[in-house]
Predict the 3D structure of the following.
Amino acid sequence: MTNIYRDFPILKQKVNDEDLVYLDNAATTQKPQAVIDALEAYYLHDNANIHRGVHSLANRATEAYERTRDKVQAFINAGQREEIIFTKGTTQGINWIARSFADAVLEPGDEILISPIEHHSNLIPWQEAAKRNQAKLRYLEMNQEGIWTAEDLKEAISDRTKILAISHVSNVLGSAQDIQALAQVIHDNQGYIVVDGAQGAAHLPVDVQALDCDFYCFSAHKVYGPTGVGILYGKRELLEDMEPLEYGGEMITLVQRESSSWAELPYKFEGGTQNIAGVVAFSAALDWIESVGGMAAIADHEKELTRYAMAALADYEAVAIYGSANPDHHHGVISFNLAGVHPHDLATGLDQLGVAVRAGHHCAQVLMRELCQGATARASFAYYNTKADVDRLVSALKEVEEFFTDGFI
């Protein structure tokens, strides 16, 4: 792990005269030197627009961009490269599905089913889709684990349930859904499943063919890649029927005065100049993931770290942990509060001691109300984190508690 730590130059800094412990990985991961180098190399040597020019720079840029598509296909085991659409992030991908796909399949009275633990990016687009199509937005019933079985879904759906939109892994509770089992239930009901994979792709190996999901969206920046790059995976037959939502250069085959025809997949969804440098650098992130043993190795390391952290926090009576008591259900994400200390004050205090965590509602206000909390603190792990980082977190928590207990007296 020492060598892994060295791959991330940002982690070598001090914050408030303390060595940085970065535990906000559910928000974004830090970038290995290889990704930073890939961005620099692109702008130094290959900067050009793609799919347009015939000169050497344009050809090299196009080849690098399309090579990333092939690597993403392998990363999530998509059946065809044409099923990989580059977006600017998970949010854009889900919005496109809720607009182009949902608007085409929903009829008045149909139902969209989501869970109460969803990130706003997998909630608000469905609220709006329901309004546009006179459909009903319904929620699965909350439970402590934040996990829903096939039987739970069978009890919740009706013959009008057309779309199930659900996160693979919760950004608050860390709980993971059995997407394959849920997909079978919704498909047997003649419906579709849309998966918010922002945290799933960050913490687990993903095989979209085995999951049999209809759509899967995630962001590069949560899997050691650059910001501004996302992936929309969709089954080819569904993508073929979807209309593009953004119009411009390169997403067409023929433009006439009164009408135009769209390019083939995946290009009909990639109009205009894309984040070429970001896509190219994401290739380096995927190479780095492969070099450490792939997502299976990352998941195993995070599982060990989560078990260690949960055990340490369980011995600390002032800390309340939200979600399952089973550490294996947290997938590198632990939300908690410290008795008598507001989460924002807690995060500020931890920052003064060099420990970076998230505090707030985590873009999941519906879940916060289910938990009867206005906010929580959240520690989330990545492959570069260590047990020493967890020890720093626990010792810093105790220092913050002492300050708020004794500091004002």
